[in-house]
Amino acid sequence: MNPGSVLCPGCRLPLPVTLPGTAQFIPCPACERSLQVEVFPALARPAAPARAGEAVLEAGVSSCFYHDQKKAEVACEACGRFLCALCHIDFNGRRLCPSCLQSGQTRGIIPTLEAQRVVWDTAALTLCIAPVVLVVSWPLTFLTAPTALGLAIYSFFRPGSLVRRSRLRACLAMLASLVQIAVWVAALLAGWHRGTAAPGQ
Amino acid sequence: MPAASLQPTYRRFPGTGSHALARVGLYLGEDHLLQVSANGFTESYRRFFFQDIQALSLYKTPLGMILSILEGGFALMFGLVAAWASSVAGVAISFWILAAICGACLIWNWVAGPTCICVIQTAVGPQRLYSVLRVRRARQLIAQIRPLILAAQAQPTLERTPSEPSGGGDVPAPPA
After folding, report:
1. Of A39, A104, A117, the CB nearest to B42
2. Closest approach of chain B CAs to the CA of A41, in angstroms?
3. Disulfide engineering: A35 pairs with which of A45, A183, A195, B59, CB 3.0-4.6 Å?
4. How many CB atoms are closer than 10 A to CB B147?
5. What digits encode the pLDDT tens for the residues B86-99?
6. How many Cβ atoms sit within 10 Å of the Cβ of residue A147?
7. ipTM for the complex?
8. Closest Cβ–Cβ partner in A9, A100, A159 for B1
């Protein structure tokens, strides 16, 4: 994609749009579809040129932790390692090395790097509801109800959704699973009682 | 590594869509938009930082018109059946209820306005916002985030210049 061009969402060809960022209806020259395009200054911003880093030419000059032949330019703001132009990463206004960035992602220290999360309370609620909604699969509740109860309890010890803060779903899942377990226990007790009843009674 | 960052707070933007068997929602953060895809067990996140957004585009789709035609057609059909079977009270009432439901859906579709596809473009490429399905919602979104984007892009980015350590001064030489 050429820098400074907006693609038509329909045909993916460049549109003739210009700054400043005001809404304008324009027809796509290729597919003639009428579009409303809002353009922002970042469209005209040139891409930062890639830099491989300068070589160490003099003795005593600091070198990069990962490339000892390249001159160090900055220090990682997390661990303090010296980094060349190739290694240091500008992220959210901070300069970090690849290791700190990766460890921040895997340890969940940098929330904005998290791309996926298992949501245990939602999973528990889904396990409670799905077999009941799909009427033919209600016997599966014999297995899914205890599993859902376990997941709901486990969810209290794990981080929840990134965008929801309440534990309402976990509580609903616990309640629904307990009801299902109680129904199964009552049914099994009733069946057992009927089976052990004396003949003729 | 510094202490764990506080979890960012988000404000939900109205509207829900679907994509690849997942429910998609849009949230507004301090410095980015967050698109969340939830399939009942996991959530996937895609962030669009205001500093990187190049354009927002939307175009109308015929889905709203198609829905109106279908809902109107079913409402009319159920109404005709109910009128034809007026002598049988139970059947007539059932079909009047179905006709009323279809009519309510038709009215809601008209009130919601025309449907559209909204696409956000960054340097990586265009990405569709699956939860923005109506022109009215898309325009509300644009009006809401336009000042945030312009404010973020008016700030100078962190320039990568040679020999510019954080905190000023030269990079100290390692100890001998």
Report:
1. A117
2. 7
3. B59
4. 10
5. 888 788 899 999 99
6. 16
7. 0.75
8. A100
